[in-house]
Amino acid sequence: MSSDADNDNIILHCLIVPCGELNSLPCDRVQQTVTVGRNQAVSVLEATIQSRLGTPFNNIRHQVFPSEALMQPQDLISTSFNEQPRPDYYHVIYSSARTPDNYN
């Protein structure tokens, strides 16, 4: 039997794209599984990923995508995920932010 807390949480498989400033990210940090509350802001997901990346990768400007659209830090997780997604997919793509300086 699941509790209300279990129903409020969501498990997301995250793929960190090792390109740009994340190019030298160690292989063991590229795939992450994160549990966050559905009613938490996307910024909580971002902070969790950043804390796991460690120095110097935790201070890199980044972007977070569910499937097609950019997730905004102030949005709730439930905006992109209103139910537990399939476990055999990457649900979130995390990459260094594209700026005019790194389009080359």
Give an overview of the whole structure:
This protein is α+β, with helices and mostly antiparallel strands and 104 residues long. It has a single domain (4-102), classed as Roll (Ubiquitin-like (UB roll)). It is built from three helices and four strands; from the N terminus they run H-E-E-H-E-H-E. Strands 2-1-4-3 form a four-stranded mixed beta sheet. The longest helix has 12 residues, at 42-53. It is globular and about 35 Å long. The N and C termini lie far apart (52 Å).
Q: In the CATH scheme, what's the topology name?
A: Ubiquitin-like (UB roll)
Radius of gyration: 14 Å
Overall shape: it is globular
What is the CATH superfamily classification? Phosphatidylinositol 3-kinase Catalytic Subunit, Chain A, domain 1
Portion in strands: 15-25%
**Helix- and strand-based class?**
alpha+beta
CA-CA gap between termini? 52 Å
Tally of helical segments: 3
CATH architecture: Roll
CATH uppermost class: Alpha Beta
The largest sheet is: 4 strands, mixed
Order of secondary-structure elements: HEEHEHE
List the helices and strands and how they pair.
Blueprint (H helix, E strand, L loop, with lengths): L3 H5 E8 L14 E7 L4 H12 L8 E4 L11 H4 L11 E5 L8
Parallel strand pairs: 1-4
Antiparallel strand pairs: 1-2, 3-4
Q: Keywords for this structure?
A:
disordered C terminus, 4-stranded mixed beta sheet, 104 residues, globular, alpha+beta
What is the gist of this entry?
The chain has 104 residues and is α+β, with helices and mostly antiparallel strands.
